[in-house]
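Newbie here. two chains, one complex. Structure please?
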Amino acid sequence: MNLGLAALVGILFSVGTYLLLQRTLTRIVIGIALLGHAANLLLLVAGGRAGRPPLITNEPGPAFVDPLPQALALTAIVIAFGAIALLLTLAWRSFVLHGEDEVEDDLEDRRIGRLADGARE
Amino acid sequence: MLLALLGLHAVLAAAAPAVSRRLGRGVFAVCAVAPAATVAYALARAPAAFDGAPASETVAWAGRLGLDLQLRLDAFAVLMVLLVSGIGVLIFAYCAWYFGPRPDLGRFAATLLAFAGSMLGVVLADNVLVLYVFWELTTVTSYLLIGFDHEKGSARAAALQGLLVTAAGGLVMLAGLVVLGEAAGTYTLSAMLADPPAGGAATAGALLALGGAFTKSAQVPFHFWLAGAMAAPTPVSAYLHSATMVKAGVYLVARLAPAFALLGGWRELVVGVGVATMLLGGWRALRQHDLKLLLAYGTVSQLGFMMILLGAGVPEATRAGAVLLLAHGAFKAALFMVVGIVDHQAGTRDLRRLSGLGRRMPATFWVAVVAAASMAGLPPLFGFVAKEAAFEAYLHGGIGPIGPIALGGMALGSVLTFAYSARFVWGAFADKPDVARAGHDGAGAHAPPAAFLAPAALLAVVTVAIGVLPSFAAGLVNAAAAALDPAVEPGTLALWHGFNLALWLSALVIVAGVALFARRREVEHLQARLPSMVDAAQAYHGLVKGLNRGADRVTGLVQNGSLPVYLGTILLTVVALPLPALLSGGLPTPDGVIAESLLQLAVIGGVAVAAIGTVLARRRFAAVLFLGGVGYGVAILFVVQGAPDLALTQLLVETLSLVVFVLVLRHLPENFEVHHWRLGQAFRRAVAGLVGVFVFVFVLAAGQARTSPPVSEAYLAQALPEAGGRNVVNVILVDFRGFDTLGEITVLAVAALGIAGLVRARRRERGDEEPA
């Protein structure tokens, strides 16, 4: 177990979560990107310590690292890119339409909340 | 055949709207075919059922759940079918005269027939789960019937009230039935009752099942919904009160009582609730001015009476209860039909505005007298036979202290019953000088057409006939009671038992009842002065209002419209649920190295700093550059870890991401909006910190969680010989797990389509602005 990497994964998740909870779409997207990096690192750390890259050669050598987490992470990197590109386009679109990239509260939901305070009578 | 009869109800109900468009009120004649066929079949099968050879059918459904469509027509079911379908036929005949031509008759006939079919299902079901399904079908169809005049708010409210009360009770009953079924090892009703389970679970199940029966049969404190249910058209009330719906609860209790009456508390509970209901219903009936409401409270009272008899599990009382079921069905349907006729002919059913109707419609008057006298328990009528049998059953004693309570309750309840029966006849038909002087002398009321009165008259004839010659019904009653409880000894029904205790008790009841009726004004005044002790209706309204308020509050709390709050809730759940599970095996011991090399440690530090930079940056570009730093740092970490493919991909993707960020950010303001958060910021920090700690613990635990060799050993071994590739990661992606990659490409394609759509939407808008 690589404790330094484990701690880094924790930090990246923490920072990513913090940004995810913001109201500015750009910061949310950055948070998602950080969460993506953190998840990929998590896969690798969970796969074990560092080792020889899984490239089969005819010479004998130390043990290969587990290739499966790498394959999973590779897929995840690409998908994360697709997601981020889409989210950024949404942020841009929001800016074009509303002049800002803030996530506002849903006013309808606020109205439902106010019902409890006697509006139903 | 049983299934076919149920199917016939369903088919005709579905066809009724179309039929009514062609035949108008003739739709009721078509609908009556289904219950008539049912009565005919039940009569044909009755001899076999009486000899202990019930017709039964099973259609496999979900057998593993104990849920098969099992139907059974034993002797007690025959009795119930004769009530449900026999009175059903008369109700349909009555409907044809009660309603004027109106466009929604088809809908009414369809619902009424569906209701009749559901009730038929309840009494035929031999599987407790099937019984529950039909039970709730009666709830739903009765909701539609009570709220038939859906343009009236009061009708809708009454329908909803009935639905909520009976469906809630039904859910309690379902829980009870499942517990009983598990305790018995079978969901087949007849098998469960033949070999009843005992013990704590069975007791709990049986008592829970009572929850359904009590709500359905309008027992205290659930009686109020039945009074509200008179918002229904009168034919519905006649059917609901006499043969269906409220009898379902009595039916269930009658079925279960012989098997479970001796379990802890059942008998005391049922008899206690029955006595309370009988007295409360009778007492309330004495102050009603609306004839229909008077009868409704009378039904509440009679239902309590039936509970006392059929719920105690005392063989003789069970037999008396079967008699009362029949007698009550006959006289109560007739009485409601009479109210409908009075309402129809005189335009009101308020006894303060009715006078002289006895002279103007003598035939209706005599039908009402016969039916009401039967209800009051006067000889020589069916109701008298039933009440004598009831008194007899409890006069013998031998069932402990509950016996005298039941007897006293029945006697007192019968006094009230006599009084409100008299009040009904007096209220509807008597010459009342004060009312006549006020201008309500019923001058406009004509006698109804003979066919309108015929169904009620037929029931009155039956009431007299069985009263005079009770041996007609003895065979049916004996067999039905024996089907409930094999311990029931067949007895004769008789009008005249000699001068025994029961007769003297009846005489006492009649004398007291006459006295109570004679002092009716005083009774009314007394009731008006007394604060209503049990106002269950108000409790219901308070409950419903509180429920609505509470729902609004909860909705306002959990759906407050704020995205950060939603996400925070989800993340906290992610932390709160798995973290205790992770830590339940003790804190994972961190064993391992701090880092592989100094270089790695330095990169880790750099990435951490860059990550924190993304938070602290006030300018958008700065934040993105920090993000890029994290991405390139992660690529280096991939190299150190032994993942060159990942590192390459990461480099490329990171660069591309930066390009996309720059393309977008050049349109956006330079700085982030500055917010002055108060509480929110602490919440965000707390959630973020907790998530970080959780993930750290999770990584430590995951590293030590391996229990079997990794699957990738096979990949490493097979990559070259099978796939002909040396780069194992590549081989996994394109060969071993090629479908994952296909999925990945699909995701990218979808994202690309989405992006293209958003970008082109912008172009189109611009295009629209240009002059064509």
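Moderator note: The domain at 2-51+62-120 of chain A is CATH 1.10.287.3510 (Helix Hairpins). DSSP finds four helices and no strands in chain A. Thread marked as resolved.
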